[in-house]
């Protein structure tokens, strides 16, 4: 399980059921990446940000993809 996003596209992320010990960590959500099979325990804002970024790239905006580092 990772605590950071993987290198796959966020559109592959699927919400998964959190384990009981994850409940106090309400700021993070559990996702399953269908591309690499990893479980990701990350803040949902991270996923929303990446999805928005991917959508922007898809629409042909010339925002540099490397801007986020
Ligand atoms: Zn992945």
Helix and strand arrangement:
Elements: E1 13-15, E2 29-33, E3 39-42, H1 44-58
Antiparallel strand pairs: 1-2, 2-3
Bound molecules: zinc ion (ZN).
Poorly predicted tracts of residues: none
Number of domain units? 1
Helix content: 10-25%
How far apart the termini lie comes to: 22 Å
- Name the assembly state: single chain
Mean pLDDT: 88
Compute the number of strand runs.
3
Instruction: Quote the beta fraction.
Output: 15-25%
Strand numbers in spatial order across the main sheet: 1-2-3
- Small molecules bound: zinc ion
Helices, by number, come to 1
Describe the structure.
This protein is α+β, with helices and mostly antiparallel strands and 69 residues long. The chain has one domain (10-61). It is built from one helix and three strands, in the order E-E-E-H. The chain has one helix at 44-58; strands at 13-15, 29-33, 39-42. Strands 1-2-3 form a three-stranded antiparallel beta sheet. The protein starts with 12 loop residues before the first strand and ends in an 11-residue tail after the last helix. Zinc ion binds at residues 6, 8, 33, 35-36, 38.
């Amino acid at each position: 399980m990772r605590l950071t996003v993987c290198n796959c596209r966020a559109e592959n992320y699927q919400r998964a059921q959190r384990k009981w010990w994850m409940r106090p960590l309400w700021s993070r959500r559990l996702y399953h990446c269908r591309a690499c099979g990893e479980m990701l325990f990350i803040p949902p804002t991270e996923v929303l940000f990446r999805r928005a970024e991917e959508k922007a790239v898809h629409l042909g905006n010339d925002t540099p993809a490397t801007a986020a580092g």
